[in-house]
Amino acid sequence: MLFVDADTELSKNFLENIIEVMQDPKVVCASGYIKTRGNIFERFLFRASSELAWLLSIIRYPHFYGNCLACKKDAFEKIGGFNEELKTCEDLDLTKRISKLGKCILVRRAIAYSSPRRVRKTGALRIAIFHIINFFKYKLLKRPREHYPIVR
User: Fold this and answer.
1) Strand 27-35 to strand 68-71: parallel, antiparallel, or no bridges (unpaired)?
2) Distance, CA of 130 to CA of 141 (rounded, Å)
3) Residue 90, number of CB atoms within 10 A of its CB
């Protein structure tokens, strides 16, 4: 199963790269490397987030974003899918739960381009602070934020 946000564009060989990794019976979840076609600062932010996600997957503490996420259907169903009670962090929660069933791999050669519109509309510092605070609210208190502003 592949989950992709409407404003995320997959590179030409994205699916082939994800499918290749998912052939390993130990792999239950994979994500692509998220980039953007925005300005240099936006590109830096997206790459930094992808590098962090890659590093966390290497140390078996995966945190993949829902804008580009693949799961094996049986593993997805076994954990009950996304926790629809969560308004934010549902992607991190899914990755955390599914990682108990097998490997979660960030596939560096599977490139996806996501829109920088939220960074532009909200501001880089504000969006970074939102996500950092929300991450810790989810990890420490098990209560992520209930509201994530819609940005069009």
Assistant:
1) antiparallel
2) 16
3) 17
